[in-house]
Specification:
Strand order of the largest sheet: 4-3-5-13-6
Helix content: 40-55%
Order of helices and strands: HHHEEHEHHEHEEEEHEHEHEHEEH
CATH architecture of the largest domain: 3-Layer(aba) Sandwich
Largest sheet: 5 strands, mixed
Strand content: 15-25%
Shape: elongated
Number of domains: 3
Number of strands: 13
Number of helices: 12
Distance between the termini: 45 Å
Radius of gyration: 23 Å
Length: 301
């Protein structure tokens, strides 16, 4: 048994697909298949149930995955400690992020990081908060950035910057600058999906104020921020968005902000890491870069 076999096994388990695992490790599919075959022979057990659509862990494979992760993490931790001073940082970094950090934080962070470590490649996917949590939990992502504090023994959750939710409408809308919830019910809502941290915060605050969320007339549900902003600017409805994102796009689109009486939604962006994962040199250094923005009080990087 060697670490190449373990890396192949963990990646096939992660992606449930030999081709995707091979792509992630920059190997050919036959090489991945050979690693898995040799590992199964050495262990004398079947690690995967193979179907035409995807590959799933057997019960024994699920049990072995924990041991494989521990062995790989121990290797990575040892290498990190022994070579941290002079290693050349390379490889890929997979980040799952919500829409606001994807627009506000990551462009600057990736640019700053690649100026120092030009051989690191990034895979960045914009997703809803609950899906990001699943990605980090399953090790499909090295790092996650979400618009909520995740309280779980499985994760390390670190604050990055504060970014409140505000309400927006077209510039020429007849919505008053300060409106009651009852008055708001006559207008259409453009909402995020149920998995969105923004939607969870929005609905929670309304319920805490005693409002019936079901009375809102939702005409569009989307996690595509660009589509949401465009629909609002065209008068399709009002929406709730990041204040920082609004400040950026209100210079390009005919949008304005308004307030709902008694509703003020404060929230923070957080960096999410699986406690079982020993971060690569690239992931560890990128984490430190993100945290450096926060420590300097650079809340809107």
């Amino acid at each position: 048994m060697d670490f190449r076999q373990l890396e192949a096994f963990v990646n096939v388990a992660k992606y449930k697909n030999f081709s995707k695992a091979a792509k992630a490790l920059y190997l050919s599919q036959p090489t991945i298949s050979l690693h898995i075959s040799n590992l199964e022979k050495e262990l004398n057990l079947s690690l995967f149930d193979r179907t035409s659509k995807e590959v799933n862990l057997t019960p024994r494979g699920t049990e072995f995955l924990n041991y494989a992760l521990d062995m790989i993490n121990m290797k990575n931790k040892a290498l990190h400690q022994l070579t941290a001073s002079d290693i050349k940082i390379t490889g890929s970094l997979h980040i799952s992020t919500s829409s606001t950090p994807n627009i506000i934080l990551l462009p600057r962070a990736i640019s700053d990081f690649q100026a120092i470590h030009p051989e690191v490649r990034f895979v960045v996917e914009e997703k809803s908060s609950t899906v990001i949590i699943e990605d980090v939990c399953s090790l499909a992502a090295d790092l996650g950035i979400v618009g909520m504090k995740v309280e779980s023994d499985r994760f390390i959750c670190l604050p990055l910057f504060q970014d409140d939710l505000i309400f927006i409408c077209p510039m020429d809308s007849d919505i008053k600058e300060v409106i009651s919830y009852t008055e708001l019910l006559q207008y259409n809502l453009i909402s995020r999906s149920e998995q969105s941290g923004s939607r969870i915060d929005f609905q929670r605050h309304l319920v805490e104020q005693g409002h019936d969320v079901s009375l809102l007339e939702t005409v569009v549900v989307t996690d595509d921020l660009g589509l949401m902003l465009s629909l609002v600017s065209r008068g399709v409805g009002f929406a709730y968005v990041s204040q920082t994102v609004f400040e950026v796009f209100s210079k390009q689109l005919p949008l304005r902000a308004f307030k709902i009486k008694g509703i003020h939604i404060e929230r923070s962006m957080h960096l999410l890491i699986n406690k079982r994962r020993t971060l690569s040199h690239a992931a560890e250094d990128f984490k430190q870069l993100l945290l450096s923005y926060y420590k300097k009080g650079d809340n809107h990087p």
